[in-house]
Amino acid sequence: xxxxxxxxxxxxxxxxxxxxxxxxxxxxxxxxxxxxxxxxxxxxxxxxxxxxxxxxxxxxxxxxxxxxxxxxxxxxxxxxxxxxxxxxxxxxxxxxxxxxxxxxxxxxxxxxxxxxxxxxxxxxxxxxxxxxxxxxxxxxxxxxxxxxxxxxxxxxxxxxxxxxxxxxxxxxxxxxxxxxxxxxxxxxxxx
Length: 191
Description:
Helices cover about 0% and strands about 50% of the residues. It is mainly β and about 190 residues long. Residues about 1-40 have low confidence and may be disordered.
């Protein structure tokens, strides 16, 4: 699956320093929920706790279903990063955020001669989104076949000139291809 940038909602793992360097640092983690009503897009594994000054804290980010971890941001200078894991040296107050993006998938829609597919080309949809594809034969033609991911989507008869296919709840890449038959017309004249 392909992943594209989207709204970077973040799960944050802040850490606050105590007045003296001999005192422990406080490190806490919270989960931000996305504003668009789809719920959280990821989390971090660290809860609120006290940690001694100079200790190391390993924070792991976990993306929610349909999202992918992108990167760490914030006070990450001097912190080893290995993918979705960061080790923070608690020598100062730190605010570290895990950034996530919604997964994006493609539908590649193509049509042969004597008809159209709409929309056509490469269509991007986000995780969980749906889209409709309308297939229309030109006048004097009919739909011969529609293949979704290489598998026939329907059995078409000679009068089939329009077909709507819905991709529901996108979770992967797909292809859709339409083929058409042109029906030759005969002209007869009787003299």
